[in-house]
Amino acid sequence: QKKMETRGWTGAKARLEALGFPEMSWLSAGESESDWFLLPGVIRFKALEWLFVQLDHSFSSIFQQATTEDSHIIYLSRAVMLFGFAENKHRAISIVQGGGTEATQLQFLTEILDLVDVSRDEMNRTEDEQWDLEKRFLDEIANQQRAIFPEPSDLPKLIGSSPLLSSALH
Hints:
Layout: H1 8-19, H2 35-38, H3 42-55, H4 59-64, H5 69-82, H6 89-96, H7 102-124, H8 127-148, H9 155-161, H10 163-169
């Protein structure tokens, strides 16, 4: 199986294609690899709308109400705030319009793609798979805790093997 590029703009396009983005031909618009997302406009808005609908299908009817560029910006900025990508309305509007550096925009897109991946994974898991995943997660936390905090019965051995601790306690 071919390994998918997961970094940069090429990786973002590959991830969108793997998620089933219906308008991959749109992503070839522009002179550079990233123009489709960096330049404000219909292509960027439609890509963001599609991603947010993947996270919450109720956005579909909301985004269908957007008839002007301003209404696209308003609805998308609400979604950006709802999912925690911006702390206020002004920052959300800036994100939707492509404000910030190219690296910032790529990070924003990558975070949305990560969220869509996680939500899809959760939707496709059976209850038993989810339980197994949670159990492994809790086991890993417990193992990390044991590595940091020794068992009480191990303390005398640990103290005895450390000259500094041993002399400080006696």
